[in-house]
Design brief:
single chain, 246 residues, alpha+beta, 5-stranded antiparallel β-sheet, globular
């Protein structure tokens, strides 16, 4: 009887220890999960849109009368990342000032003096993404002379930063880390070239994405984490975007 009582006490004691262990596991687990969520929340991109230029003498000269010159920020402790973002933002400020300094005084602008306030306009598009492994920043810009209608597409700026190594990596290094082979890249670009040829009635070829034996490609992520390839097409002297299925 005494032995049975001892076994019962031991069983109850072990059960209590197990329950305490489970409670501690869930409490600590939830704390860890909360910290991870907080960490991801802190490391998020923000875009300030304070710098704006109203391009129109009267409302309605554009779909959007204002052009925005955004500042991109990321709450992430890396000197490299901050240097890259500072460079991008300084470039944006330079274009902003250039627009404000442009005038409608030239002969070409006389027809448009009652439409536009400034002769130069810049467009900017960006894709910003980060996960546990990489930070991806893609900036595309264009410059337009509103009086001559000359449009200049500036070369896109793309940065892929390896978080673990805290360094910017090349397309080749990125492919190696993501186990992407050249056949996958080729198929994605060829598929995009075929779409362009069909819709634009062009005759672009995959071979003409090479120049002097080298292909100019860059990888970046969209906001939603889809992976894309920027590639240079020699016939058009321009970059195009191909979706890379994963």
């Amino acid at each position: 009887m005494k032995k049975k009582k001892t076994l019962l006490i031991t069983f109850c004691f072990m059960t209590i220890l197990l329950l305490i262990g489970l409670v501690l596991y869930f409490i600590l687990g939830n704390k860890k999960e909360t910290k991870e969520v907080e960490k991801k929340f802190i490391q998020s991109f923000s875009v300030k849109e304070d710098k704006r230029v109203n391009m129109c003498v009267n409302p309605g000269c554009f779909l959007k009368d204002e052009t925005i010159y955004p500042h991109i920020e990321l709450d992430y402790k890396s000197n490299l990342v901050q240097l890259i973002l500072n460079k991008i933002n300084k470039e944006t400020d330079k274009y902003y000032e250039e627009v404000l300094a442009s005038s409608m005084d030239s002969i070409e602008c006389q027809t448009y003096k009652e439409i536009y306030k400034y002769s130069i306009n810049y467009g900017m598009d960006y894709d910003l993404y980060h996960d546990e492994d990489f930070i991806s920043i893609k900036i595309s810009r264009s410059k337009k002379n509103l009086c001559t209608e000359e449009l200049q597409i500036l070369n896109p700026e793309v940065h892929i930063i390896d978080k673990l190594e805290d360094k910017e990596i090349s397309p080749e290094e990125f492919m190696k880390k993501k186990n992407i082979d050249y056949e996958e890249v080729k198929l994605a670009i060829e598929k995009n070239i075929n779409k362009i040829n069909q819709s634009m009635n062009t005759n672009y070829t995959y071979e003409n994405t090479y120049q002097n034996g080298k292909q100019d490609i860059k990888f970046y992520y969209s906001y939603s984490g889809e992976l894309y390839i920027l590639y240079f097409q020699n016939e058009a002297q321009n970059y195009y975007v191909a979706y890379l299925e994963q």
